[in-house]
Amino acid sequence: MLIDLTGKIALITGATGQLGRVMTRTLAKCGAKVAIHYNHNAAKARELQQEVIAAGGAAVIVQGDITKEASILEMKERIAAELGAPDIVVANAVIQYNWTSVLEQPPEDYVSQFESCVMQSVFLAKAFIPEMIAKRGGRFIGINTECVMQNFPGQSAYTAGKRGMDGVYRVLAKEVGEHQITVNQVAPGWTISEKDRGEDDLQDAAYVAQVPLKRRGEDQDIANAVAFLASDLAGFITGAYIPVSGGNVMPSI
Question: 46-57: per-residue pLDDT in tens?
């Protein structure tokens, strides 16, 4: 049984990021045409596009600020003109900032996390789900985090943004399910990505001691989960928050 996304169109926001680039390659390898979103890293976007095309796939590049609805609507027009309406939307982009305590965290960091976690998802849904409804099917996937179940010191702005995102996805899953659109979240643990490889010690002892599988996950593990949720194999899964963390966090019943 193979994950076959042939004939599907996928948008990955933050596609030039550490996890986004692997998601992009993976969905393309599964047969999807990919829209590669970036905000600042145009060079990496072009590199990914060339890589996908060289492998026989189809890819377009779209630049945009995912915290602005007008920018997302411009992306929609570009994708529609060059590929068509996306069947798969992966909300992966997030604004980076320096973590510190609640008492020391600048208020603008809470705003940035709300905008890039909650409002990005809302704007993407408003832009792309109507076409999914018309086609009677689609996949809306958000990248969350294990942090929302940990609540460790220093995580407050990130956790607040991702918890708000979780609420949007759970409600949206109920609102659009009748149209055979699934809405799910993948929640990575502390993941090894391209920027980490080459370091002497990738398996932080204190962290992996808490992980049942006794290792950190790889970026490909996250991309594999996204590809599965994007496929017909996951057609009866919706409203799920799925940790890809080696068991480090376990949602309870």
Answer: 999 999 999 999
Q: Which of 158, 169, 207, 241 is catalytic?
A: 158
Task: Name residue, tokens 């980490």.
Answer: 196
The CATH number of the domain holding residue 128 is 3.40.50.720
Task: Give the integer Cα–Cα distance in Å for 164 and 115.
Answer: 10
Number of structural domains the chain divides into? 1
Give the model confidence (pLDDT) of 65-88 as tens digits.
999 999 999 999 999 999 999 999
pTM for the full predicted model = 0.97
Strands (E), 53-180: 59-63, 88-91, 138-143
Whether the Cβ atoms of residue 223 and residue 204 lie closer than 8 Å to each other:
no
Indicate whether 42 belongs to any domain. Answer: yes
- Domain assignment of residue 24, given as a range: 9-243
207 given a catalytic annotation: no
Residue 248 domain-assigned (yes or no):
no
